[in-house]
Amino acid sequence: MSQLPEEFVSKYQSLLGEKESQIFFNAIKNDNTKKGFRLNSLKNNFQQVSYSLDKPISFADNAYYGIVSGRDIEWVSGTVYSQDPSAMYPAIIADIQPGERVLDLCAAPGGKSTALAEKLAGEGILVANEISSVRAKILRENLERWGATNVVITNESPEKLATKFVNYFDKIVIDAPCSGEGMFRKDPDAMEYWSQDYVIKCQIRQKEIISQAVKMIKPGGKLVYSTCTYAPEEDEQIVSWLVDKYNFRILPVKHYQGMSSGRPEWADNNEQLKETIRLWFQDGVGEGQFAALVQAPDTAELGTFNKSKKKKRKNNSNTNAQRLDKKQQQLIDKVIDKFNLPTQLVDWPKLAFNSNNHVYLPVVEDSRLQGLHVLNNGVELGILKKNRFEPGHQLAEVLGQNHQKQVVELQSEDSYQRFLHGETISITTDLIGFVLVSYQGHIFSFGKVGGDKMLKNFYPKGLRK
């Protein structure tokens, strides 16, 4: 364990007092980290996992304490997501309902986005945004595994998003970039770059992000603000600023065992700040977390911006995107007719577009997304090639929502690991053509069976291990 910065020690001795601060410092040094995972209820057989379910996390559905490996079939198939237990809480207090429009503004690596998408249950829209291109790629991979059908993934600045989604979202989640004090135990390197100056820099950036978010929320909409730091400048003081500047209202959230209240005295003494949540290391839930739920006023003018008026367009305005013609539909149907489609995909012939031979079902009209860096809009069914259609990996993960018959089950750990590596596998089956590939009952890829009974590998090269 690295040495705690002197400035940090002095600060929390002043804030907490000698006795309470020592308990806090000892909890950091004890390195008693707790790991957790969530089961994905979107998947057909999500409860059939090899992990112990004896230690449930009290405040989260289908969530447990335990360790998950990135090579396990449960992870590869999107049946589980490994996540710090404390970090699960912000998505929970968002109280997502099917049909809502939701924005995860600082979304990578995807823990909160997967939870939000799961609660939407295929209805409504989730826009998951990440400003870092490297982290956005990881976000896309994690959401693709999750098998959600109604997600748009963007790699944009909040400023640019705000020009496209004025007063659009019912709920916004901001897990803001922060000074990372709540990660000191998990990531000791965070101590190396910590300083009080860095805390203030983070506070400035957090205000900039929120200033864009308020332009995108509907009147009366709700916003979850969270960080993985303990700094009052980035926690209670940000919430106070949001209330004062934009007339938001702090809403009560349920406090479970191991959760502490926010500290009004560390901001402007607004007693409603006690409704916010602090998860200290010594609370024993997980790593450090702050979370608050606030509600926008019932007015159309939340920020100093102009709501542009645009004529509605009936057609998709992406110049490269076109409706499928009859021949293309037939090529696609020849492949996917064998599979049991989730409800959201049943009408694909009417809903799908072809853009540069990539066939996808958008959940947000392309006209709204023009000018944004979009990594994914809805579900990519696959790619049209010369006189044939090749189904995509995202479709395989989506099909894991339903029971399927066109499936090849790998019979051994060795076969599973070889397939992950990209190898062709010799199998015994009566199936022919494109099939779903599963291991221990978890679908995770497409394959193709030829007359020689060899299972050709369609697991994406970028994911191979």
UniProtKB/TrEMBL annotation:
InterPro entries: Methyltr_RsmF_N (IPR031341), MeTrfase_RsmB-F_NOP2_cat (IPR049560), MeTrfase_RsmB-F_NOP2_dom (IPR001678), Nol1_Nop2_Fmu_2 (IPR027391), RCMT (IPR023267), RsmF_methylt_CI (IPR031340), SAM-dependent_MTases_sf (IPR029063). GO terms for biological process: methylation. PROSITE patterns: SAM_MT_RSMB_NOP (PS51686). Keywords: Cytoplasm, Methyltransferase, RNA-binding, S-adenosyl-L-methionine, Transferase. CDD domains: AdoMet_MTases (cd02440), RsmF_methylt_CTD1 (cd21147). S-adenosyl-L-methionine binds at C106, A107, A108, P109, G110, G111, K112, E130, D175. It holds the Pfam family Methyltr_RsmB-F. Residues 304-324 are annotated as: Disordered. Residues 1-297 form the SAM-dependent MTase RsmB/NOP-type domain. PANTHER family: 28S RRNA (CYTOSINE(4447)-C(5))-METHYLTRANSFERASE-RELATED, NOP2 YEAST -RELATED NOL1/NOP2/FMU SUN DOMAIN-CONTAINING. This is NOL1/NOP2/sun family putative RNA methylase.
